[in-house]
Amino acid sequence: MRNGFLSSLVFAFLTTASMASNGAPVAKPETGNAPQMQEVSPKVVTDKIDLNTADGPTLQRELSGIGEAKANAIVAYRDMNGPFASVDELLEVKGIGKAILDRNREKLEVN
Which segment of the chain is annotated as a signal peptide (predicted)? Predict the structure, then answer.
């Protein structure tokens, strides 16, 4: 009788332990909150001068045939008329002719 009682106790204990481990909540891995990496395309670095952002001294230093007066005229034109739509619009600036534009066309861009 003692063996039967002891076996019943062991069986009950193991059954309870087994049910407790099966019924315990399982921690789920957090897949939705993982940090995500964004791919950022690097800004293209060019040697060109942007007519819409360059200041007078930069224009004077980088462009051929552009002195202080013409560089200031370019900046003043941009301030009065808004950003340049194209490099060819530079011809509208007083003192800038086709020869100066052609000489500097490869150095200029408009963004």
Answer: 1-23
CATH number at 53-109: 1.10.150.320
Residue 87's closest CA among 33, 48, 61, 40?
A: 48
Tens digits of per-residue pLDDT, 3-50?
Answer: 677 677 677 767 776 665 565 566 666 665 656 666 665 655 668 999
Token pair 């315990």 is found at: 24
* Contact call for residues 110 and 52 (beta carbons, < 8 A): yes
- Alpha helices of 1-111 — where are they, by DSSP H? 2-23, 56-62, 68-81, 98-104
Domain boundaries, the chain: 53-109
What's the rounded Cα separation, in Å, for the pair 84 and 6? 95
pLDDT class for 90, splitting at 50, 70, 90?
very high
Chain mean position to CA 9: 67
Contact assessment for residue 110 and residue 51, using Cβ atoms and an 8 Å cutoff: yes
